[in-house]
Amino acid sequence: MGSNSGLFARNRAVLRTRVSRHAYLGLAIACLSVFVATLLTAWLDHGRISLATLAAAQQQSPTLWLLDLMPLVFAFWGQYVSVVMASEAGAMVMDQTESLRARARYLEAHAAQLSHRDELTGLATRNALLAELERLLAAPDHGPAVVGLLVLDLDGFREINDAFGVSAGDDILRVVSRRLGRVMPDAALSARLEGDCFAVMLPGLRDRDQLTDLAAAATRTLSAPCTVGDNRLNLFASIGAASYPSDSLDAESLLGHAMAAMYQAKRAGGHFVLHEARTEPLDPQMLSLTAELRSAIDRDELLLFLQPIVTADTRRLVGAECLVRWQHPRRGLLPPGEFVPRAERSGLIVPLSDWVMREALTIAANLRACGQDLRLSVNVSRRALTEPGFADLMTRYLAERAIPADRLMLELTEQTLMSDEPAGRAVMGQLQAAGVGVAIDDFGTGHSQLAYLKSLPVAQIKIDKSFVSDVTTSSTDFAIVRALVELAHALDIQVVAEGIEQETQAQALAGIGCDLLQGYLIGRPMPVDAFRAWIEQPAQSHSSAG
To answer: What domains can be seen in the chain, in order of their start residue?
Structure first.
């Protein structure tokens, strides 16, 4: 603004020292008026106009003496008007300039505030959190106190967005921010990192064990019912934590360790993990593939392969296991081992499981329409099993496709069953009541407790191929498999042998009463069209079981 005011001051100074256009105009008008008045006076007094009569009129008329002053008055008036107009115009321009500058300063301040404050929740942003954490760690007077960092990621938030809309999701994020503010210490700094991921910086802790108590407090306050429209939901979060100075000495690494612990918590099915030395930091390649996987689910880049399951005695086709593959645009067809563990670590296992379930039931409906009434087996992670409303979602998917519930078998690992979570047991009970079967996958490879077979609603166990491969050469493996078959039959549980690759294995297992067979000898995992062609091969003599 200083340069503009200087410019206007110089303009006014010029107008004061030079004759303006308005001054010339006023002078011309005044001179013309004096000349006309002199002509009229000479004509009226002498009856003619000449130089002598004009001079006489000027000498003898007091009125003309006054009119002779008009050129000076008009010239001054024109100059004054020019100065006033220039001053007013300058003032207006300066006022507008100042207004624009004030608006620009406001926008700059607002932008700076947005870069440090999340507009939706009012919490600090990721950059603001890191900046404050760096300042705190660099301060020479923060002493030996522990600085903790919690990272929280909501479980099932995408499903809430899909079911109730983005506006409801925004309301939930605001609820989370308010609840964190109530339960965390006054010195804490809460931030929204991105999406449904939050972080809390906790300076001045007694020790790192205090992080466990604060994580438990956050879990309790988040699990309180939250009203969304006419529905009441319970919020759950996977929480990871790291601390200074035991885990890291800089802000970026500390946040990376806390996020790695959070992903580890997600992989374990939720709850809380405190970072330890063996916890791996974030892998950029893993993050890249995780982002691609999220898009792949939305763009239907995933495929389901089917591996047939037949009866052990007659080799009659009764079902198939659904196995997911990823048709990556650059890396080609990826097996599940390339991306399912990443989905577990990143929390994408829930939407991935949901896609597999919907696709599997759609395939089952299409096969039924072609006369193949098969039971399809689908692997389910512990995280997906304990998602709120999982059992209701399965029954709805079955009803939408008009598929009987007993045509679906959910395969769970022993680790999932051994977790002994009340929520998981309740879901399995609901599934059993609805008619959906539950199978224990890779049975015998975990810390098996046979007591679980009588207390859990298990319809089927799948003996791991590590026992099947040596069943004809190892008397120990043969005895173990036979004992498992007899125990399962005593509990009215069906037995499936996985990994059958030789005819002698199939015959031995059929001889000890194994119910179903699955493996390369029967058929490899294949796309749906290839599976249909395999069914129609006359040499296979397959007839679907009702």
So the answer is: 2-116 (no CATH), 126-282 (3.30.70.270), 285-536 (3.20.20.450)
